[in-house]
Amino acid sequence: MTPDPSLNVLGGALAPCSTDPVTGFFRDGHCNTCAQDQGSHTVCAVMTAEFLAYSKYVGNDLSTPRREFGFAGLKPGDRWCLCAARFMQAADEGCGPQVYLEATHRRALEVVPLEVLQRHAIGHD
């Protein structure tokens, strides 16, 4: 698996998303992606209680530890590389989490318009 070029949605170098917990399709702390990443884990998002509850409700429980996969479960405040489609779904439902644009891979733009990401950007009013 060869990662796509590590560029963010703003056209710059892809910043790290999180190493605690370690995130990303490649578990390298970045929202890197490749052709095999069918879920496009490209949106660096900050977890909220509301989003974690929503994600569990729609069938992707990110908060429950899964020790068999070395996954401690996410909590509010954690950063995580979300699937672009799940982020878009949550944004459409009014519970999209905030995102770090510098750490969000440009491939997210295939699913999520830049304007939507910008509305959820950290530091955006």
Automatic annotation (TrEMBL):
Pfam family, one: DUF2237
Name of the protein this chain belongs to: DUF2237 domain-containing protein
